[in-house]
Queue: 2 jobs
Job 1
Amino acid sequence: MTYDVVVLGAGGAGLAAAVSAAEDGARVLLLESEGEIGGSMLQSAGMFTAAGTSVQAAMGVEDSVDRFFQHYMDLNQWRLQPGLIRRFCTQAAPALEWLLGLGLDVPAERSGSAHHPGLCRSGVEDVWRGHVPRDQGQGVVHVLERARRRHDVDLVLHTRVHDLLVADGRVRGVVADGVEVRAGAVVIATGGLAQAPELVARWFPPALAAGDDLFVTAGTGSRGDHLALGEQAGADLAGIGWGLLVVTAYFQTRHHWDAGFPPLSRVYVDRSGLRFMDEDASYAVAAGILDDHGGQAWAIFDEAARLALPPGYADWTPDRVLAEVAGGRTAQAEDLAALAGRIGVPAAALEATLARWNVTLPLGQDPAFARSESLRAKGVTEPPAPIARPPFYAVRMLPAQLVVTHTGLRIDEDARVLDRTGATVPGLSAAGEAGGGVLGPRYVGGGNAVANALTMGRIAGRTAAADARAGGPALSAPDDAAAGAPRTADAAR
Ligand SMILES: Cc1cc2nc3c(=O)[nH]c(=O)nc-3n(C[C@H](O)[C@H](O)[C@H](O)COP(=O)(O)OP(=O)(O)OC[C@H]3O[C@@H](n4cnc5c(N)ncnc54)[C@H](O)[C@@H]3O)c2cc1C
């Protein structure tokens, strides 16, 4: 069986790679380990960070690639390769425009969060760059799947690939379900490693600090297969030790869309009993702030806030808080001094913290932590209520939700995989979480990982098509659907 390009993984990066390779004239096979396409991308908000887009322009937001690049590099303390990041920042907007052309809808209107389509402040950027599509990650997967069908890209589900065909120093295909599939180029887009605990322990040990509270929301296929596949071709790694952990309550086990949100009217205190952060700081930086304060915090709120929690969520509900109190895991007390005693923080400091809160944010100001600015960006118009009605509650918060891992096969600006001598591995590209070097020590706000997957996926597809044309065994040798032809997704159903 022979193709120009074989793409492993039908998530965000894999779909983008498959479609762009097909647009460039390649005959493409897309192999997916699970029973459905989409991977983590399907679950995501689809928020895409990019600079200089038509959406920003329509809203009068001035932005540029240079500005994006500077911000990205500074936030990551220049610990990433500038050439690769320059390419990523340059190509993010064209990748978004490409998706808009394929039918993705990002309305040119202000959005308060990843839950509403439009342009939002994705986190810590100076200019709003968070493009949230209608139907979120599902919308992204849908338009790419439509394009895949239009371009006759073959898709095979339930096919977890473990082996590359490597000969004479060149990747020449893969082994899928025991069948050799030859190809001019292969793209590894198998996602991250969050679902493989032993790989998390090795490649992203900071996640272990959450202990039994750790939970994973990445797609089920995120088993780190890129590492073993890359090893077969002598690939180098990048992004080691980095990933995205989101701060949640210890009792959460799902993404906040299902889990719900802690009360708006809350403060976080560390073991000194003092407030230390903007409670609405972007998840891009919140875990790092907690690191400086012992790795965890207490969310303090009152009875009015508990009762105001909206119904319908799995975790943050009025009843769940009481159940956690009954189980002895969440502290409750009639006054702040007693609450301080239960969580082991100085009573005077906790009382002073709440007294200060009650005369600042409920009156619309937060001179110390500027949370009023974050709330404004989220479209919150009413100031949070005072925290004054007993009983009071203290819930432990920590970086416990593992969403993205950054350890991938080291890639160059064209998404070609590099070996340990710095040379490209002929015939092999990688993208998304499987491709290392774009996602850095600091997540640059919501939209970083989706932009990486789709931008670098699109680049990888183009590179693979060009590589197949230049030197691969397959181009212009189309498979004639001989015996053993792959099941398409349709046939597999
Ligand atoms: C709940 C949630 C919300 C998120 N929201 C955002 C957001 O709004 N913005 C943002 O920037 N990021 C977000 N992210 C992160 C982002 O979605 C991912 O980083 C991104 O989708 C990764 O894309 P990918 O193509 O690398 O991996 P995936 O989309 O996970 O795709 C990898 C695919 O490869 C398949 N696969 C794995 N191994 C094999 C194998 N051996 N053979 C064949 N197939 C294989 C998998 O099953 C999967 O389908 C979110 C993540 C989650 C979990």
Job 2
Amino acid sequence: MVGETLAPVAVLGLGTMGHGIAQTFALAGYPVRGFDAHPAARASLVDRVRRNLQDFVAVGIIEPDVIEPALARLSVFETEAEALRGTWFVTEAVQEDLAVKQELFARIEAFVDDDTILASNSSTFPMSQSAARMRRPQRAIVTHWFNPPHIVPTVEVVPGPQTHESVTERTLAVLRQIGKLAIPIRKELPGFLVNRVQIAVMREVWDLLDRGVASVEEIDAAIRGSMGFRLAAIGPLEVHDFGGLDVQTAVFRNLAPEIRSSTTVPDVVQKIVDQGNFGAKTGSGFYEYPPERLAERRSLRDRKFLELLRMFYSSSTVSPVQ
Ligand SMILES: NC(=O)c1ccc[n+]([C@@H]2O[C@H](COP(=O)([O-])OP(=O)(O)OC[C@H]3O[C@@H](n4cnc5c(N)ncnc54)[C@H](O)[C@@H]3O)[C@@H](O)[C@H]2O)c1
């Protein structure tokens, strides 16, 4: 691919997710045309991506001389129409509001070719909903990245009932080409695949805290040192195979009726939220985050994520082109 010019892609919404998605395409050699409704997000894109890439260099995932060519492939435009011009693959990462997404998908069709693929990074809305007002819903597909998107390997690829098979295939191919672990999801369920599992774990963890079974620190340590440890290396179904399915089915039958099934947020968590404590972003949640600790924890988290990426995925996940 070195020396080849790849056809440009667009990213709409350059916030937490969009800037990392733009980075991933740019690092893999694609010219990226970005747009965000907020001028500050447009103005800060290149600096945010530069910082991320410097972290990649610090752990040895990329060489320092890859940074400037990758940044040079990022262009930010003042209007959505300009950003979309000449692009063959568009990812929207604007806010999670169905009306906004429906309007966006219907509007942007006018600015791209008929075979341009339009992808939604929605965490919850299936394509059948976001594409409800589109003229050509067969070109639309969910590509669900995980935060931080430039580090976490998996992207769920979820076609809607009207999505054309060739769109799904081209989407899987480009995501794999830019180094992501693209997983096709064959049925359009709310929450797709991963978030359904995450919510099941969240419900039980919050319930255990609510019942006073262990402290915040103890719960985090117990899960990290067991489930988390194993899942960083192998998948849950393989874990079950090694545990023995005779044992696992007996454990399931004994414990499944015992675990929480309620759909209300447990009191212990609701009280924290009612006090205006939303976690890292407000300085307090399950833990306290005075500014120095917040910076330290965030940087430690990113270093750990990058180490995991290097350990398990770097050869397939990051394929920079200079
Ligand atoms: N944050 C996560 O962990 C996460 C994970 C997976 C998926 N998502 C999904 O990704 C999408 C974006 O989430 P985020 O966390 O990056 O949000 P964010 O608030 O950080 O970023 C959204 C950006 O979109 C911009 N924007 C809003 N309306 C716009 C429009 N019409 N055109 C262009 N830009 C517009 C905003 O100015 C903002 O910069 C949501 O659908 C969200 O559900 C988020």
